[in-house]
Design goal:
The complex is a heterodimer of chains A (443) and B (325). By secondary structure, chain A is α/β, with parallel strands linked by helices. Chain A has helices spanning 7-14, 18-31, 51-67, 83-92, 107-112, 134-137, 162-167, 179-192, 207-217, 234-249, 256-261, 330-342, 344-350, 360-367, 372-390, 405-420, 426-442; strands spanning 43-48, 73-78, 99-103, 141-142, 145-146, 149-150, 154-155, 157-161, 198-200, 276-279, 296-300, 315-316, 319-323. Chain A has 2 domains: 43-153 and 316-371, D-Maltodextrin-Binding Protein, domain 2 (3-Layer(aba) Sandwich), CATH 3.40.190.10; 157-312 and 403-441, 3-Layer(aba) Sandwich (D-Maltodextrin-Binding Protein, domain 2), CATH 3.40.190.10. Chain A has 17 helices and 13 strands. In chain A, strands 2-1-3-13-6 form a 5-stranded mixed beta sheet, with helices on one face. In chain A, strands 9-10-8-11 form a 4-stranded mixed beta sheet. A two-stranded antiparallel ribbon of chain A has the order 4-5. Chain A starts with 6 loop residues before the first helix and ends with a helix. Chain B has a domain at 102-318: MetI-like fold (Orthogonal Bundle), CATH 1.10.3720. Chain B has a two-stranded antiparallel sheet with strand order 1-2. In chain B, helix 5 (94-125) packs parallel to helix 9 (186-196), helix 6 (132-146) runs antiparallel to helix 10 (199-211) and helix 14 runs antiparallel to helix 15 (292-320). The radius of gyration of chain B is 26 Å and the shape is flat. The chains are: A alpha/beta (443), B mainly alpha (325). Chains A and B meet through helix 1, helix 2, helix 4, helix 11 and helix 16 of A and helix 3, helix 12, helix 13, helix 14 and helix 15 of B. Chain B: It is found in: Cell membrane. Chain B: Pfam families: BPD_transp_1. Chain B: Keywords: Cell membrane, Membrane, Transmembrane, Transmembrane helix, Transport.
Chain lengths: 443, 325
């Protein structure tokens, strides 16, 4: 998709030689020096996304350069797959980009390692953050310093194939729905479709969009505040896995082979291939596939119905724009961040491609030009952020995830799969999960 | 081949040398060498190769050996941790053992199957048919394509839940499953892909078969030996050096397999680590989990294991490989 050499090609070039090749992959990064350093005086900017997002970024950057002809920007973009692998390699090789799109889930890790530049000193000068709420800026704030400008509001929501639902004569659930409602309607989907479609993709191993909300309903977090431990109890996870085991048994969720195939591959997502109507994966909107002609709709993560439920939803910051510490062009990078945050043309070019815009002004700017699906998406996000804002019993938004978080998420996914494939009992897997998780976080 | 080389050498020396002639010539040669400036310039021509050897192979290897004793996340300086990485690998890393299991299974199943197929096809192609060159090219083709990402993607489509393979099974009324995303079958799709790429050993086998003496077969035919007897009593024993060569090469190759596992599992090694081949795990640790020190340790263990397997192969070969002379 992008213009960059993928890690596949990188590895193919090192896998040719007999034994040395076995070491090649590990060595090529350590030796450094051979990578293409940023010798030109251009400002390099990288991002990941869909083709739509690439086009929008390019258009907005062209507008920026018209006004700032002195700053030359070299754009590099790709899909998410391999994006951070490449970034890591560039950092290690001394050829870091100046400006990058950053993941809210990883910003703390990179900030603490000293990769990102703190940008507090620019705020109110060249960086105009008027209209950004404090909770939103928290997504880019690590240990009290600002390391990135959030692109918009990110919420956890389900993507629903509304056309498919209506075809089966079913109604879109109310936004105040519960986990039990989810089970009920998913079973209805299976029955009404004659066993062809399961209701919701298996969320037992899905983290951010799903389990974290459930844990927060119980007053627990995913990670402890210091990031050195898990913030939830085995009992909570057990209850969770039992719910999904029950869902699979009731044909409310697809069998594990379908779940497994969708790992790291949105095009195989159960909703995309037409095997389910509800998905916890927020990435499928715009990912294409067989649902492009269906009308999509959006719902907040269900809540309640299980004892002790409180508001589990929360709002985070979409994606971020961050500058690297090694860069000599932080000031210029900040100008670009500010442009994306406030400039009218940039906001209109981006629409919802980086999340729901962060400021009231920006939301009003794009409101008239939205597609029907975009409109639904924004309405739902608005609803969730208002509900979270009003909730009196909600936990504060989660702290930025610690290093090793992505390994834990993967572990959760694999664990749920092991149970689903019948390779492990829930109790047995529970022990292994907590063992391995503490190994990852502790060491 | 060896005789041809000796011929050339003999031609360069016009007359049989007596001891004193020899001494005289040596003196001349030394004098000439000195006049040319001590003979350093050949090394200048070799310099690019030396730079490559030391800069791209020896130095990185030593560097990775050092890193294997450190905690190195690529982004901050490496911290010396002694044997920690190696200890953790063997005592406290279940995924490591998953990857060892997957890799050994992969090597043990794919290499013999691949070689058997290569030998079988080589025997079929070792005859004077019309258009035989075309057949040989056709059978070799998968190996040319084999390492490519594109083929791995094709494989993923063929063996996926709604893939060609299941369509094929459906003709016989068999309801297939998603072979790639079931932990019981995923690795076997990789093995099948490896076996399918039998072209390289096949070509080597073919070259070996061409060299087998015809008269032995004629004598055996006169004595009334069946094709099966001829294969086991003549072909196979005479071919053992070639078999040995292929075994060594294919085992090394199989241990290093990365691309198909990476592509077919979307880089995850899943489902349930069933396709987590060792190289893929090494890559994940280094570049995704940012544990380059640990990945370096993994690389050195792989290096030692491959060296070990190769050594065992060479020792065992004394007992089953027959050379002509």
């Amino acid at each position: 998709m992008g213009h960059q050499i993928s890690r596949r090609t990188l590895l193919r070039t090192t896998s040719g030689i007999a034994v040395a090749g076995a070491l090649g992959s590990a060595l090529s990064a350590c030796s450094g020096g051979t990578g293409a350093g940023s010798t030109s005086s251009d400002l390099t900017m990288i991002w990941w996304g869909s083709d739509d997002r690439h086009a929008a970024y390019k258009k907005a950057l062209a507008a920026f350069q018209k006004k700032n002809s002195k700053i030359k920007i070299r754009e590099t973009y790709s899909g998410y797959d391999g994006y951070f692998d490449k970034f890591n390699t560039n950092i290690a090789g001394g050829s870091a980009p100046d400006l990058l799109q950053m993941d809210t889930a990883l910003v703390a890790q990179y900030a603490r390692k000293g990769v990102l530049a703190p940008i507090d000193s620019y705020v109110g000068k060249s960086l105009d953050l008027t209209g950004f709420s404090k909770t939103l800026l928290a997504a880019g704030t690590v240990d009290g310093k600002l390391y990135g400008v959030p692109s918009g509001i990110g919420v956890n929501q389900l993507t629903v194939n509304r056309t498919g639902l209506e075809k089966l004569g079913l109604k879109l659930p109310d936004r105040e729905w519960t986990w039990a409602d989810l089970k009920k309607i998913s079973q209805d989907v299976y029955k009404k479709s004659g066993g062809k479609i399961y209701g919701v993709d298996d969320g037992g191993g899905s983290t951010l969009q799903c389990f974290e909300v459930f844990a927060r309903e119980k007053g627990e977090t995913f990670f402890s505040d210091d990031g050195k431990k898990l913030g939830f109890t085995p009992a909570t996870l057990q209850e969770w896995w039992e719910f999904w085991a029950d869902m699979r048994k009731a044909n409310a969720s697809p069998p594990p082979a379908i779940t497994s195939a969708a790992h790291n591959d949105l095009t195989k997502n159960a909703v995309v291939i037409g095997k389910a109507l509800f998905s916890f994966d927020s990435g499928i909107y715009g990912a294409g596939g067989s649902i492009t002609d269906a009308q999509l709709d959006f719902l907040p993560t269900p809540q309640g119905d299980w004892s002790g439920a409180r508001e589990g939803n929360f709002v985070n910051g979409g994606v971020l724009l961050s500058a690297t510490k090694a860069s000599k062009k932080v000031a210029d990078s900040v100008k670009i961040m500010s442009f994306f945050a406030q400039d009218e043309t940039a906001i209109k070019d981006m629409q919802l491609l980086r999340g729901i815009p962060p400021t009231e002004k920006a939301r009003n700017l794009i409101a008239s030009g939205l597609t029907p699906t975009d409109k639904l998406n924004m309405e739902n996000a608005d609803y969730i952020s208002q509900r979270v804002g009003k909730a009196t019993n909600a936990l504060p938004a989660p702290v930025p995830p610690p290093q090793g978080a992505d390994q834990i998420w993967d572990l959760l996914f694999q664990s749920n799969l092991a149970v689903a494939f019948g390779k492990k009992s829930i109790k047995g897997q529970l022990g292994e999960f907590f063992d391995q998780a503490s190994g990852i976080l502790g060491g | 081949m060896t005789t041809a080389k000796t011929d050339e050498v003999v031609k360069e020396q016009p007359a049989p040398a007596t001891p004193s002639d020899q001494r005289e010539r040596d003196r001349m040669r030394r004098r000439l060498a000195r006049r040319r400036g001590g003979g350093w310039w050949p090394y200048a021509f070799l310099a690019p190769w030396f730079i490559g050897l030391f800069g791209l192979t020896i130095y990185p290897m030593l560097d990775s050996l050092y890193l294997s004793f450190t905690d190195f996340d690529l982004l901050t300086p490496a911290q010396w941790v002694g044997m920690d990485n190696y200890n953790k690998m063997f005592t406290d890393d279940p995924v490591f053992w998953d990857s060892v299991h997957a890799t050994l299974l992969y090597v043990v199943v794919s290499v013999p199957l691949k070689l058997a197929l290569a030998l079988g096809v080589a025997m079929l192609l070792n005859r004077d048919l019309k258009g035989i060159g075309l057949y040989r090219a056709a059978f070799y083709l998968p190996s040319l394509l084999g390492g490519a990402v594109a083929i791995a993607i094709v494989w993923r489509q063929v063996f996926g839940g709604d893939g060609l393979f299941n369509d094929f099974l459906a003709w016989f009324g068999i309801k297939g499953q998603d072979w790639i995303s079931s932990p019981d079958t995923a690795l076997y799709t990789l093995i099948l892909l490896a076996v399918w790429q039998f072209g390289t050993p096949m070509v080597i086998f073919l070259a070996g078969l061409k060299q087998l003496p015809k008269d032995v077969y004629e004598a055996a035919a006169i004595d009334g030996a069946t094709p099966i007897t001829r294969f086991f009593k003549i072909t196979l024993p005479l071919l053992t050096p070639i078999v040995f060569f292929n075994v060594v090469l294919q085992i090394i190759d199989a241990f290093k397999t990365f691309t198909p596992a990476f592509v077919i599992s979307n880089g995850s090694g899943g489902p349930l680590n069933s396709t987590m081949l060792y190289s893929l795990y090494l890559y994940k640790k280094g570049f995704t989990d940012l544990q380059m020190g640990y990945a370096s340790a993994l690389a050195w263990v792989l290096f030692l294991v491959i060296a070990g397997f190769t050594a065992v192969n060479f020792i065992a070969s004394r007992y089953w490989v027959h050379y002509d002379d």
